[in-house]
Amino acid sequence: MSILNTLHRVGMLERASLFHKLNVARSITCSLARLSENSKEQNISEEGTNALNTKLIITRKQVSVETSIKYMISDAYKQTYGNNPVWKLYRRNHKGALPPKKTREMCIRGNVICGNPCPLCRDEYLVLDYKNIKLLEQFINAYNGDTISYTKTGICQKKYKDLLVELARAKDYGTITFDVPIRQYDYSEWQPKH
């Protein structure tokens, strides 16, 4: 949640053009393992005096697939996303009334993250892998088994390509199968009545 709050504040400052009022000498590095509870409360209470760079630098640890699978069934995941897919509540910031036709190419370039990252880039515990079935199933249409488009989910182009690769691997390994449900019809309703 600390990362999301920081990204939200950076986006607000960027939209309000307040970067010139901040001390650019410091940058916020978001590593949840290093932050203590006192420093979290202090960072939240000192919003106006906290120093930010014009670009947010993030040091991300590599999360294993097993940790990601455990995260998908944890209380923290349920508290953050509820019963919705991870992309359901995401809204991308854009200029003008009409959203762009394509999503951005990538949200993280090196260690620099954009102001409003896609649903998969903003949460480091969401790892795309053919073994992480609960995450992959959120991007599959329940009616026909197709992959849901990036225009609906809002994920960046890099993660969308990774998603397609991992879905293909999951179907090859057999971790995800899709069968059209068989519907039982009552033909007596359609027979002509005499």
Characterization of this structure:
The protein is mainly alpha-helical. The chain has a domain at 65-176. 35% of the residues lie in helices and 3% in strands. It is built from eight helices and three strands; from the N terminus they run H-H-E-H-H-E-E-H-H-H-H. The chain has helices at residues 2-16, 37-45, 65-72, 75-81, 119-122, 133-136, 150-153, 157-173, and strands at 56-57, 108-109, 112-113. It has a three-stranded antiparallel sheet with strand order 1-3-2, with no helix packed on it. Strand 2 (108-109) and strand 3 (112-113) form a beta hairpin. The protein is globular and about 75 Å long. It starts with a helix and ends in a 21-residue tail after the last helix. The model is unreliable at 18-56 (pLDDT under 50). Belongs to the bacterial ribosomal protein bS18 family. Mitochondrion-specific ribosomal protein mS40 subfamily. This is Small ribosomal subunit protein mS40. InterPro entries: MRPS18B, Ribosomal_bS18, Ribosomal_bS18_sf. Keywords: Mitochondrion, Phosphoprotein, Ribonucleoprotein, Ribosomal protein, Transit peptide. One of its GO terms (molecular function) is structural constituent of ribosome.
Strand order of the largest sheet: 1-3-2
**What's the total count of β strands?**
3
> How does the major sheet shape up?
3 strands, antiparallel
Give average pLDDT, whole number: 75
Determine the strand fraction and express it as a percent band: under 5%
Task: Work out the radius of gyration.
Answer: 21 Å
Shape call: globular
Name the helicity range.
Answer: 25-40%
Terminal CA distance reads 67 Å
* Low-confidence segments: 18-56
* Helix and strand run: HHEHHEEHHHH
Structural class: mainly alpha
- How many helical elements? 8
